[in-house]
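[SOLVED] Predicted holo structure with adenosine-5'-triphosphate

Edit: marking solved, answer below. Original request kept for reference. I posted the sequence and ligand SMILES and asked for the 3D complex as structure tokens.
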Amino acid sequence: MNKEAIIKVEGVSVSFWQNNVGVYSLKDLITKRKSPFKSKTILNNINVEVFRGQSLGIVGRNGSGKSTLLRTIAGIIKPQKGTITVNGTFAPILAIGAGLELELTGYENISMLLALYGTKNSQGNSIEKISEFSELTDEVLAMPVKQYSSGMVARLAFSISLANDSDILIIDEVLAVGDQGFQAKCMEKIYEIKRQGKTILFVSHFPDDVLKICETAILLENGRITHAGDAKEICNNYKKLF
Amino acid sequence: MQSINKNNNVQNISRIYALSKRNVILRYKNSFVGFLWGFIKPLLFLMIFTVIFADNSGINNYTLYVTSGLILWFFFSNATSQSVGSIVGSAGLLKSLNIPSFFFPLSEVLGELFNLLLTMIVFLLLMNWAGMVYSPRLLLIVPCALIFAVFIYGLNLLLSSINVFFRDISIIWGTIQPAMFFLTPIAYPESNIREKYRAIIEMNPIYSFIKLGRNIFYSTEVPDWHQWSSCMLIAVVMFLIGQFVFNRLKNQFISAI
Ligand SMILES: Nc1ncnc2c1ncn2[C@@H]1O[C@H](COP(=O)(O)OP(=O)(O)OP(=O)(O)O)[C@@H](O)[C@H]1O
Ligand SMILES: [Mg+2]
């Protein structure tokens, strides 16, 4: 395999504002250079390199910064320090219910999200493909998403996301809510995507899932990478945290 | 630095279109008469004002006078009220997709422009019945609405971005709108406002647009260049202010929604 870096994260730090300040700060917020909000460091000097075709697992406790790291890599959050270089395209982050509009029906969501994602293969049949993969019936897809069960939401989100032809797939613990059949199907699909030589960033709290998909992994603790390397080793480290 | 889904123009236009379409769909979702609300509201106001003011307003053709002002007022009022919460309400999308956040306030304005178009069709019939003569001059409403839309977009940038950090903005905005409405000569003639309070009208940017639109529908002369250029100036200034504030705040949206 040729080792071409597709994602390069160098010295990245991200901090968020903690908004607990009154109305007076509004003026300062807009006019001053320094923000009146106290900021809290969420990611601290992160360095990661991901090669084309690599699947990287990301594990860590709740609140250790996994979702934030994914969003930063995807360009959704701008880091205060450091640089991120990406040589490819992203599928939208696959998280529970991501981007679905609850009031709209499944079909309306599919066509809106396809347009928003800028999916390349948006021929007429991609709506069919999505509904077929999701195994949701016509009747269900004509219902507003707010009436879906959480597994149904995950099926829809997953199916729409996978309709994308991008180079990098980002999965933020979304598999857990699907039923066994759908989980197996998603795994199958993920393997297929892997075989196509695409890059996967995979967050999960289940080491077994991580091991099934990823060869390498990183362990995040309080916004820092404390361990990086072979997935098996990292998962052991992760289990030792508890 | 990053080539994320090749953010080219064609794609961005189709994204903005998809969001605007969503807004139009959402607006009439689960409502019985659907888009008719767009003109039931102004119609209701028209009826109330006709009962209260028409006879002693000193305005000839009161119906036409009020209607032309109301159409633009509701365009303004709907577009801004929907948009105040547009960033906050799009948390799901903003957190999962690298999409410029200004798309949301922008698509609210565009969705509302579409509604204005629908409303306008109905109101052109009503205004004709009230005595307005159809003429090519009426087409001037198109540039007028577009300039007003620029102003509204600038205001939306301001409101939606500050609302991310201070959610009171959406409540305040809903509260002060009726006050703004009555401080704008829509239901009564400009001359009702006494000389010493004239500043209220002169300082009211919204009135400039309402007046421009009303001149197109109601009066027989074409609005002069002075009126057009002052509207354009107000719109551009509002746009620049909105843009400035929005850009200052946008990098921290994700942490607050
Ligand atoms: N909007 C926000 N504003 C301020 N702090 C935030 C915000 N979102 C997350 N954080 C903080 O950032 C840290 C990391 O959050 P993140 O969502 O990245 O964790 P995570 O590793 O994905 O956790 P989980 O396993 O629960 O999904 C947490 O300490 C959290 O409190
Ligand atoms: Mg998370």
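OP edit: Residues 1-6 of chain B have pLDDT under 50 and may be disordered. Thanks to everyone who chimed in.
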